[in-house]
Write a sequence for this structure.
């Protein structure tokens, strides 16, 4: 089965605070028996931190709780639901539970389009995850459509991290289909963008360089990336 990387969720740095801060906030609100959108927001932050750390077992119940609070306080068709829904979809995708992941990711895309517009980068991230899901289901044609739609959005909103990962995944789809020229072009572009953003020695750059080298070896293409 072709391996693809799941699209980015976010960075702990974006929150400006760490695990301890949000854990203390949650404990205080729980002790006071506060159940409102502020608690759900704290849960959202903890979910992302645990997800980035690979602690899916810890992240899952917190995302479920956040979703329940939001649905209770703001309804089942509100903007606030996007975060816990997309995270639950991403968690299930990481666990390999594709049947649970797919409807969650599609629901997140639908809500995001409603509240953020059709060309928002949030949608591109979720489309990238749907593409990864389709590759796991061995449906490369559907995966390609999701990746291409995501890249169209990234083209309008360049991002050296998330957009590049979608580019790499699409390159792998083309490589799997035997379209070496298209795959090679995408790998080269992705590697150049990552080098420009982070430098040649950054781990994220090296990950792409390694994927490109593996592609070159399998495709019988000589030369350095």
């Amino acid at each position: 089965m072709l391996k693809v990387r799941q699209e980015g969720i976010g960075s702990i740095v974006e929150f400006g605070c760490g695990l301890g801060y949000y854990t203390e906030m949650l404990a205080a609100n729980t002790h006071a028996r506060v159940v409102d959108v502020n608690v759900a927001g704290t849960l959202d932050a903890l979910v992302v931190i645990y997800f980035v750390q690979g602690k899916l077992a810890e992240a899952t119940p917190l995302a479920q709780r956040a979703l329940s609070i939001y649905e209770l306080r703001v309804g089942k068709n509100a903007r606030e639901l996007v975060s816990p829904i997309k995270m639950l979809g991403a968690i299930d995708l990481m666990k390999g539970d594709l049947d649970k992941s797919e409807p969650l990711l599609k629901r997140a895309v639908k809500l995001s389009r409603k509240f953020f517009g059709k060309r928002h980068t949030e949608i591109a991230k979720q489309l990238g995850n749907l593409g990864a899901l389709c590759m796991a289901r061995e449906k490369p044609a559907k995966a390609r459509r999701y990746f291409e739609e995501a890249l169209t959005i990234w083209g309008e909103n360049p991002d050296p991290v998330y957009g590049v990962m979608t580019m790499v995944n699409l390159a792998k789809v083309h490589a799997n289909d035997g379209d070496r020229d298209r795959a090679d072009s995408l790998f080269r572009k992705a590697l150049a963008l990552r080098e420009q953003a982070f430098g040649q020695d950054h781990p994220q750059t090296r990950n792409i360089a390694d994927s490109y080298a593996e592609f070159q070896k399998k495709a019988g293409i000589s030369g350095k990336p």
